[in-house]
Structures are given as structure tokens and as C-alpha cells.
Amino acid sequence: MSKFAQFKEIGKKIVCVGRNYREHAAELNNPVPSKPMLFLKPTSAYISEGDAIKIPKGCTDLNHEVELGVVIGATAKDVSITEAMNYVAGYALGLDMTARDWQAVAKSKGHPWSVAKGFDTSCPISKFVEKEKIPDPNNLDLWLKVNGEMRQSGNTKDMIFPVEHLISFASQCFTLEPGDLILTGTPAGVSKLNSGDVIQAGLANIIQVQFLVQ
Ligand SMILES: O=C([O-])CC(=O)C(=O)O
Ligand SMILES: [Mg+2]
To answer: 106 in a domain, yes or no?
Structure first.
């Protein structure tokens, strides 16, 4: 199983899961999906600590979404739920930055979310976290503060579809390759960001990140 020292070696496709927490689906008045809802971000979306999150030109409602990222370690195609964890190299904290105003327009027109979710700097990511450091990814606190104030505080036990299920399902849609990242969805508490805001986020006390919004 390959290991990844940091995100530049992760650096592969970003498979995102939407509406995987009931309270977050409810806060945006969205229905709860009956199977995982997937979308993709381009690899140009990645940034790491030290890089700023840039509000894309014309966006008036940039939101944070803290998420557990699962880093794939071996090629996975049509894998079962029971074997899914064998394909995990480790984890990362990821922020699914979202231009909520653009996403609302796309939703109303039935258009794809690519631009609202995939702009440059829309995937800030932590350093790689070794698999052994998170023995149970389905029971992990995740939190996010803006300017020191707690905005998101959740636990992955509240995911509608647990990690094994997401890997199995995603592997039926796309061949998962070493270095791919699955962002597993955000808990409730998403909110608007302004230029100058400082985001701090963490996976329990295992890993923490800080990003400036520009
Ligand atoms: O934009 C959304 O709310 C869908 C999503 O990414 C999530 O639930 O994490
Ligand atoms: Mg998300």
C-alpha cells in the first residue's frame, strides 16, 4: 500500500459526496439522497497550507464545508463494501469550498455544479494522515472555526453513507486510482466567508489546518 507524505503526492482526482449528513441537507432545504450523490472537482482546485483561499471573481456567497477526505492507495474498480477499506491509504482534512450563490443558480436551472465547486483554490487540503492514526473513520469529530468562532462541529458517525459504502459506490462509477481523494460530505453549519477571514479546521485532535480567505 503506497504512502503519501503530503498532498502534492495525493494530487489526483477529487470525488465529492453531497448531502451525506441529514442536518446539512436540511439547512439547505435539500432532500436526503437514497444513494450517494457524487460530483467532481478538478485537480487545479487543490491548495495546501500557506496558500490563500481566493474568492472567485463575481461570487458573493463563498461557503466553507469541512469534510473527512479518504485517500485511495490502490486501484479500485467495482469493489465490495466488505473489501473497500483495503483500498484506503490514509486520510486528509479537506475543505469543499463552495460558491453557494452560483450553486443555487445551477440547481434552479438543473445545470452542473462544476463551476460552483471546482474553481481554483476550492479544495484546501491538510497533510496526509496515515491510516493507522484514524482507526474508525466512521466515528471521528470534525470541526471548523472562522476567526476563532466555532461554525461546524460534527462527527462522521452521522454520515448517511459510511466510508466503506462511499468507496464501493464511487468505484462503480469511476476507477479509483492511488492518490485519489474522496471528500465524504459536510456536517451542518456552513456559512458565508469574507475576505480577511481565517479558517481553522480539524479532524478531532489528529490534524489541524489554517487558511486565510483572500
Ligand atoms: O453543496 C452541498 O451542500 C453538497 C455538499 O457538497 C455536501 O453536502 O457536502
Ligand atoms: Mg461538500
So the answer is: yes
